[in-house]
Amino acid sequence: MSGSNCPAEPWMYVVVCPHVVAGAPILYVVRDEPTDEVDSGWQLLCGTRDEDSIEGAQIWAVQDALSKDNTLAEIIQYPIGTHLLRAAIGDEWEPPNAS
Ligand SMILES: [Zn+2]
How far is the CA of 82 from the centre of ligand 1 (A)? Predict the structure, then answer.
């Protein structure tokens, strides 16, 4: 599956960094090319710590991620290739190169 307009269906999965799993806010999101038909392509990250280690990362359903943080609803359908940052939950999402 490829293309920039893949819908992120509620039953598709997202990758959540270990810090978010532990309760950190989601402040950095990346939508990569999906690897299979149930992959939304989204990685939902805390954005404030070293994300090199994927140990402890989890797979969540899109609907579960939205349940944790309903502010994701505004960006969950953004196209593959999206990178967005925010300073806190409720702030505007911005591209990483925005100043
Ligand atoms: Zn993290």
Answer: 18
pTM of the model: 0.89
Do 85 and 78 meet the contact criterion of CB atoms below 8 Å apart? no
Question: pLDDT tens digits, the chain, 99 residues: what are they?
Answer: 444 568 999 999 999 999 999 999 999 999 999 999 999 999 999 987 667 667 889 999 999 999 999 999 999 999 999 999 999 999 999 998 755
| Sole residue written with tokens 């593959």 | 80
By residue count, the chain amounts to 99
Measured in angstroms, how far is the CA atom of residue 58 from the centroid of ligand 1?
Answer: 11
The CA 99 to ligand 1 mean position distance, Å, reads 22
Residue whose tokens read 């990250």 = 45
Question: Is there a contact between 96 and 81 (Cβ–Cβ < 8 Å)?
Answer: no
Distance 48 CA to ligand 1 centre (A): 7
The Å distance, Cα 43 to ligand 1 centre, comes to 10
